[in-house]
Write a structure and sequence with these properties.
Layout lengths: L1 H28 L1 H6 L4 H8 L6 E3 L2 E8 L7 E4 L7 H4 L2 E2 L3 E2 L1 H5 L1 H5 L6 H8 L9 E4 L3 H11 L4 E6 L6 E7 L12 H13 L21 H10 L7 E3 L3 E2 L8 E2 L11 E3 H7 L2 H11 L1 H10 L23 H8 L9 H12 L10 E5 L5 E4 L17 H17 L12 E8 L6 E8 L3 E7 L8 H19 L2
Parallel strand pairs: 1-6
Antiparallel strand pairs: 1-2, 2-3, 4-5, 6-13, 7-8, 7-17, 9-12, 10-11, 13-14, 15-16, 16-17
Helix pairs in contact: 8-17, 10-12, 10-13, 10-16, 11-16, 12-14
Length: 483
């Protein structure tokens, strides 16, 4: 009998010990996670008692808090411009939690970071309530509005950046959505708006500027040319002008867009091949360089890495271990090469910025309720990829820049020309098995670099026909805003 009591006592002690350990794990190790979990009802109520700081573009609030009239959920988030900035701001919802900058900068908008400890202390000591901090963005409102207008309801995305600083001037994805009903304090209204958005086959909740990758087509020839120039080739290097390139190890050969030769059927220079977007030259060039050289150069521009952007970016991809036919196709942006508009805009920015790859960012400054700056931009080079933020030499960047200017002046990108402005760019038309992806990447001086993609542009559409005019409209708007 005493032996059974002893065993029972030991079992009870073990259970109490396990309970003690579990409680301590929760109290000591998981307390912060549990307290800050988005589904924590107490946290939601606390946050809705705070007047979140505004998100500001061009001195106008594109997200702000207003009195809701509800005693429990005191403030409600509103978005005066609706869908224009929806993928940037995201929504702030009692039911759906947060997205976009509302999620990424939640601490700043509520005034919680260490930089504003004084206002937290004031609340603890019974001081007056203070709103959160204002977040000012780098977005150019004219360029953003121009991106929406130029896409004209078509599925697509535009990303524009300042080549020198990496500040994002425009980031528009179409179709978009209205974040206002999702940020209601009425759960029935939220559900009524949310369900159609989820069921929509055009996926309006998807931010195509950063979350979707596309075959870049001929826009990727800029990377192939960069690899060649960095390897010692010159823009005047001559290649056979072939109507069809006989790709080794396969019967699936590569021809030029529309068929025929790119020049006179004899020879063509690397520079002229870029201007007229000659597939046969770049397919041959890719095979000559090899897949390792193409991959290394693409990674120096940021492929196979994640840009340090406030909003999460899907990595662009240059695949590994390519055979010869795959290398030829990859050199012209086909096969399994994939890129986001953000990545391609950064590629154009590096060419415009003397070979320096800027760090993309949205935040220009963070100001406390008294107007004092307590945070700012994370400017500089994106130095994580190989090359420490300098994917090509200044000499190579200058050579590429001249090629891309030629493509706009007299090649495939003439629809992007702006009178009195030096514009360079590269078109792309990627065959994806359905309708092609139409691209334009380029720059206007050193003021703006951008990428435009229309993934459902139409069966016979090209980047020069449909993407270049969008780019021109956005560049014109940004340049007008700069005076």
């Amino acid at each position: 009998m005493s032996r059974q009591i002893t065993r029972l006592s030991l079992a009870v002690l073990v259970l109490f010990g396990a309970l003690f350990v579990n409680l301590n794990v929760i109290a000591l190790l998981q307390a912060d996670d549990l307290a800050t979990h988005p589904a924590n009802r107490r946290l939601i109520i606390q946050e809705y008692a705070i007047e979140r700081g505004p998100i500001v573009v061009g001195e106008q609030a594109i997200a702000r808090s207003v009195e809701s009239g509800d005693e429990t959920l005191r403030f409600q988030r509103t978005y005066p411009d609706g869908e224009l900035y929806a993928h940037i701001t995201g929504y702030y919802s009692v039911l759906l939690q947060r997205s976009g900058l509302e999620q990424a900068l939640n601490e700043e908008l509520t005034g919680r970071p260490a930089e504003v400890l004084s206002q937290n202390l004031a609340q603890l000591l019974g001081g007056m309530e203070r709103p959160g901090n204002a977040v000012e963005l780098t977005i150019d409102p004219q360029a953003q509005a121009a991106a929406r207008a130029a896409l004209d309801g078509r599925q697509g995305a535009v990303v524009a950046v300042d080549p020198a600083t990496g500040g994002v001037l425009a980031a528009y994805s179409n179709p978009s959505f209205d974040p206002n009903p999702l940020s209601s304090i009425d759960t029935a209204e939220i559900n009524e708006a949310w369900t159609p958005l989820q069921d929509d086959p055009d996926r309006p909740l998807l931010d195509r500027t950063i979350a979707e990758t596309y075959a870049p087509g001929s826009a990727f020839k800029v990377v192939a040319a960069a690899a060649a120039l960095e390897a010692g080739l010159e823009p005047g290097e001559m290649f056979p002008d072939e109507g069809v390139y006989d790709v080794p190890q396969t019967t699936a050969n590569i021809g030029n867009f529309g068929g025929g030769f790119c020049a006179d059927g004899d020879q063509i220079s690397l520079s002229d091949a870029m201007v007229v977007s000659c597939n046969t030259v770049f397919a041959r060039l890719g095979v000559d360089l090899g897949d390792d050289a193409l991959r290394e150069q693409s990674e120096r521009f940021g492929f196979n890495d994640t840009p340090p952007y406030e909003l999460g970016v899907t990595p662009s991809v240059f695949p590994a271990d390519l055979d010869t036919p795959s290398t030829a196709q990859s050199a012209i942006g086909q096969r399994d090469v994939r890129a986001t508009p953000m990545q391609m805009a950064l590629l154009a920015a590096a060419i415009a910025n003397e070979g320096q790859l800027p760090r993309p960012h949205l935040v220009a400054s963070i100001r406390d309720p008294d107007g004092q700056t307590i945070g700012g931009t994370d400017q500089g080079l994106w130095d994580d990829p190989p090359g420490d933020g300098r994917p090509v030499s200044p000499r190579t960047a200058d050579q590429l820049r001249s090629m891309l200017i030629g493509a706009v002046e007299s090649g495939t990108g003439t629809s992007a020309r702006i009178d009195g402005v030096t514009v360079g760019g590269k078109t792309g038309t990627a065959q994806t098995g359905q309708t092609p992806n139409a691209w334009f990447i380029g720059f206007a001086g050193n003021d703006i670099a951008l990428a435009v993609v229309l993934p459902d542009a139409g069966e016979d559409a090209t980047g020069g026909q449909v993407a270049a005019p969008v780019a021109r409209a956005v560049m014109e708007a940004a340049l007008r805003d700069d005076g």
